[in-house]
Predict the 3D structure of the following.
Amino acid sequence: MALKEIYLDNSATTRVDDRVVDYIARVMRESYGNPSSLYDLGLKSHLLLEEARKDVAALIGGKGENLYFTSGGTEANNWAVFGTAHAKRRRGRHIVTTAFEHSSVLEACRRLEGEGFTVTYVRPDEHGRITPEQMLAAITPDTILLSFMLVNNEVGTVMDYAAIAGPAKKLAPALTVHCDAVQAFGKLPLKIERTDIDLLSVSGHKIHAPKGIGALYVKKGTRIDPLIVGGSQQGGLRPGTESLPLAAGMGYAARLRGESIKEDYRTVSALHAYATEKLSALPGVTVNSPENAFPYILNISVEGLRSETLLHHLEAHGIYVSSASACTGGAASHVLAAMGLPAGRIDSALRISFGGENTPADIDALTDALALGIATLARAR
């Protein structure tokens, strides 16, 4: 008898909604014209693309004309960092970010250091917290880019963007504020046009759309150089023939998320509280996520047991979680290292990430399987 699949790795990717699958299939069959072509088939595709652009922008409280489709969150983050640095290098060469950003921001910043830029990496405390005061203290008059996650993808820290972005701009006249909202997209309500954020990255595969599609929101008047050069698509800022099926799927998924965002948040908040209570009661389990963390993410460590061992044990019970960001390819978590946690705690970390379709029964199954593993698996030496 096949095991019931319990998927608790929604921060890595979400299962594509069946309605989105059907919609994409219809677009592929019926709207195959190039959106830039001048005949009717092209116009039909262009109109669908613009509809998707508006739907994605609406989910973050923005305008469709300011949203540019990308190949995913990594490209959007790379573009925000490189595009801003290169556009503003004559105004300053200082960048501020955090030490627990996604690798698509950290690696971009490290490359810019090789080009003569100076980067300040603000470190979280042992509980995964960074205060607005810490971020603001790092800003200098020469800072041209401030880039930070709205929600940390491994421990669920929520950054107070309102207390950071506006005050930061008063300290640096040429400052652009970029927010990586990939994990928060479709989960936290956001009104981008009412904030002091200039650039915002999102990704489709976090809201039950396919992988390979994301977007960067570029607020009007924000200076940014293109990352890719080519034709005139998307105003020449992000050229290349758009993937209409993926963009349309992301737009439709965004529309559906807009209808369920509040209900899902309530469901997941209750699951997070229940999971924290159940898992914390197990021997040797420590919670790594901060208090008041984003409810979609719960990071724990299991004393003496390696993450890889636990992952395979849970997989054998049909339960899927992760040890860190999927983008690290199994490497030890740089997020937990930035928090200053000991190596043993990092090596035994598990990230549990919820979706609106998860239930308390899933948490019970996870707790039972983890308890069995704690009792029977060989301890790490």
